[in-house]
Specification:
alpha/beta; about 30% helix; globular; binds flavin-adenine dinucleotide
Length: about 475
């Protein structure tokens, strides 16, 4: 594919949004010699760097020390009562975020990309208006990489008192009591963060269990483990109203229960950032909740306009947005048509305990394959024997009975994310269970269980195949 042309374009590529996808696309395109401009209305780095993955993981690290302190006693340590200071954590986190933002800016500049600190909107399919200055830029190609933003669901009474993850990163003090509504990864992660830091946490979710779409065993196991760590999980309910009283809040649930809290946070979903972008003027088609419809090369309904990352709502993860941005630049400016493979993307939930998954859940595998073998184990990690912590790890392999191929790996427990990144390679390669077993165990580790599960714990034949 070749770059489309506009009459006397000012730039070869205009990127709207300086987040994970936009920054990667801009740098790679500039590397191919394109004249590139990127507009960012908030902070370069986007959600992941400024108010997503990175600050979240820093808070996760902070929250896990409390378990380490408690576990240390069984190993002979005597510690003074540890004292946690939220403002120190937030200030240090902000310093690191600013450092990363500066590095992103420097890398863009080094690549020759021009940065415009402003909101940018379409005037027509080839013209972008810089809102801060009113300048109009003619672009041969446009990449929409505007990401997504928190969405609070249907308006309820007191919704103005509710915070999202954006504000949670900036709270002046650690709330003593937190109500979080939501059941997906952001809700579960923040519940774990606040609980680890010492807050009393109630997670309210309208569905039957947290982490919808994950393997049922993972969902059940995590639910139980979160409760063991003191979090209260209320399912089948919603927050119907939030009242403010005496400097605190009261979350009224759909069944009439009232839970008092210092903060009420919603993490019920994120919608693509397409409102007010001028997509109609450009003729770019959108779908459900405003997501931009694209083909496998991230091309929209307008041939020279592309979109990558969360705004397309394919798989909303940073490495996916980066890969899509890179593939777009290779396709349009490197003349190497590159489609991103969205299968077998490893995912982690940085809850306490952690979840790591790659590939198919048991339910999906059983719908797709005639015979599915399940290898599942739960066990007490070695560390828990001396710490005395009441916890178990879950490991589960979903295997195609016909070919022996490992279709899915599911882990709940310490180190799950690190393990699943490596397992992602094996699953992507189409590795079989026999090849897993041929790998020598590394002892003593939790991960050795992955290569020592000898017999299936269940074997399922698809009804239609019987
Ligand atoms: C709390 C949280 C935790 C997360 N944790 C993880 C994780 O652990 N791992 C993971 O892989 N992913 C995680 N994610 C998801 C990840 O952050 C996103 O998938 C990723 O940032 C998407 O990149 P993007 O380029 O599509 O959009 P973004 O990174 O959101 O960038 C879009 C940018 O566009 C800007 N923008 C929007 N409209 C305009 C406009 N009109 N003009 C100019 N600029 C505009 C925005 O300000 C933003 O900076 C997390 C997200 C959240 C919210």
């Amino acid at each position: 594919m070749t770059a489309a042309s506009a009459s006397q374009p000012d730039v070869d590529l205009f990127v709207v949004g300086g987040g994970s996808g936009g920054v990667r696309a801009a740098r790679i395109a500039a590397g191919y010699g394109a004249r590139v401009m990127v507009a960012e209305e908030f902070r370069i780095g986007g959600t992941c760097v400024i108010r997503g993955c990175i600050p979240k993981k820093l808070l996760v690290y902070a929250s896990r020390f409390s378990y380490e302190f408690a576990d240390a006693v069984g190993f002979g340590w005597t510690l003074p009562q540890p004292v946690f200071d939220w403002p120190t954590l937030i200030a240090n986190k902000d310093i690191e975020i600013a450092r990363l933002e500066a590095a992103y800016v420097a890398n863009l500049q080094k690549s020759g990309v021009e940065i415009v600190k402003s909101r940018a909107v379409f005037e027509d399919a080839h013209t972008i208006r810089i809102v801060a200055t009113g300048a109009r830029i003619r672009a041969a190609n446009v990449l929409i990489a505007t990401g997504a933003a928190p969405y609070h669901g249907a308006a309820i009474s007191g919704i103005e008192h509710v915070i999202s993850s954006n504000e949670a990163f900036l709270l002046p003090e650690l709330p003593r009591r937190v109500v979080i509504q939501g059941g997906a990864y952001i809700a579960v992660e923040f519940a774990s963060i606040f609980a680890g830091l010492g807050a009393q946490v109630t997670l309210v979710y309208r569905g039957s269990n947290v982490l919808r779409g994950f393997d049922e065993d993972v969902r059940a196991h995590l639910h139980g483990e979160m409760e063991k760590r003191g979090m209260t999980i209320i399912t089948g309910q919603t927050v119907a109203a939030v009242d403010k009283a005496k400097g605190a809040f009261a979350a009224r649930l759909s069944d009439g229960r009232v839970i008092e809290a210092d903060r009420v946070m919603f993490a019920v979903g994120r919608h693509p950032n397409t409102a007010g972008l001028g997509l109609e003027a450009a003729g770019v088609q959108t779908g459900h909740q405003g997501r931009i419809e694209v083909d496998r090369y991230s091309r929209t309904s307008v041939p020279h306009v592309y979109a990558v990352g969360d705004v397309t709502h394919r798989i909303n993860l940073t490495p996916v947005a980066i890969r899509e941005g890179h593939a777009f630049a290779d396709t349009v400016f490197g003349n190497v048509p590159t489609a991103v493979d969205h299968t077998n993307v490893p995912t982690a939930v940085f809850s306490e305990p952690e979840v790591g998954v790659v590939g198919l859940t048991e339910t999906v595998a059983r719908n797709l394959h005639n015979r599915v073998d399940i290898y599942k184990t739960t066990f007490r990690p070695l560390k828990a024997t001396l710490s005395g912590r009441d916890t178990r790890m879950l490991m589960k392999l979903v295997v195609d009975g016909a070919s022996g191929r490992v279709l899915g790996c599911h882990i709940v427990g310490e180190g799950a994310a690190e393990m699943i990144q490596v397992l992602g390679i094996a699953v992507k390669m189409g590795t079989t269970k026999a090849q897993f077993d041929a790998a020598m165990a590394l002892h003593p580790t939790a991960a050795e269980e992955l290569v020592t599960m000898r017999h299936p714990t269940a074997s399922h034949q698809r009804a239609s195949a019987q």
